[in-house]
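Reminder to self: keep the SMILES exactly as supplied, no canonicalising. Ligand is zinc ion.
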Amino acid sequence: MDTLLVILISVFVVSLISFVGIITLVLRKKEMDRALIFLVSFSAGSCFGGAFIHLLPEAIEKGGAEVVGFALVGILVFFVMEKFLFWQHCHKPGCHEHTFAYMNLVGDGMHNFIDGVVIAASYLASTQLGVASTMAIVLHEIPQEIGDFAVLIKGGFKTNKALLVNFLTALTAVLGALVTFFVLPSLKSQLAPVLSFAAGGFIYIAGSDLVPELHKEVGTKKSIGVFISLILGVILIWLLRFVE
Ligand SMILES: [Zn+2]
Ligand SMILES: [Zn+2]
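Structure tokens returned for the bound complex:
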């Protein structure tokens, strides 16, 4: 199939995940947290796996060991993006939840744009890499979008408006993918750094957003379950190596 078409389908599917927030209206918080913890650990495993099994090896193969530094850049950029929201949240005079909801939209849009860049760059490298990145993104977007929706509702948005604006910010992924698809091939040597950067993003998301959530749960039984789903997330992504 045409690469552009596959990219567009992938980013569109990722954008549709923004509607998943609706389940917060059906499930109670306690029930949801119980189910989410396994999804979060599965997703952390898939992000770590995406970074270490697919993106970094591919980036190094294409650009040599030096490109690994771009993974660090990815980590720092994701950190700044999150920290920026946090500053706005805490230090802006007159800051309240509504402002935070808008700031969250900006951060969300930036994040989703980068997700689109990552998906397109991965498919430009290979279909297998594209599928691996899309899968890791789909998995981390589910808890992420549930959180986004909750922030918007808390910030005073009505359900329909919250779903709509969250979907619109998710569509920035399509924009990121299109820009990457048309601009990146003209800078051919830039593919390896972008893949490495993406790996850094995945490592950051898994290590700083997802894993800390897992530590909120205590108890041996649950911890074992969480660890197993983390490993399953890694295995799922690893299995994609054998898909052609
Ligand atoms: Zn994402
Ligand atoms: Zn969102």
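Points to follow up:
The first helix runs from residue 3 to 16.
The mean pLDDT is 87.
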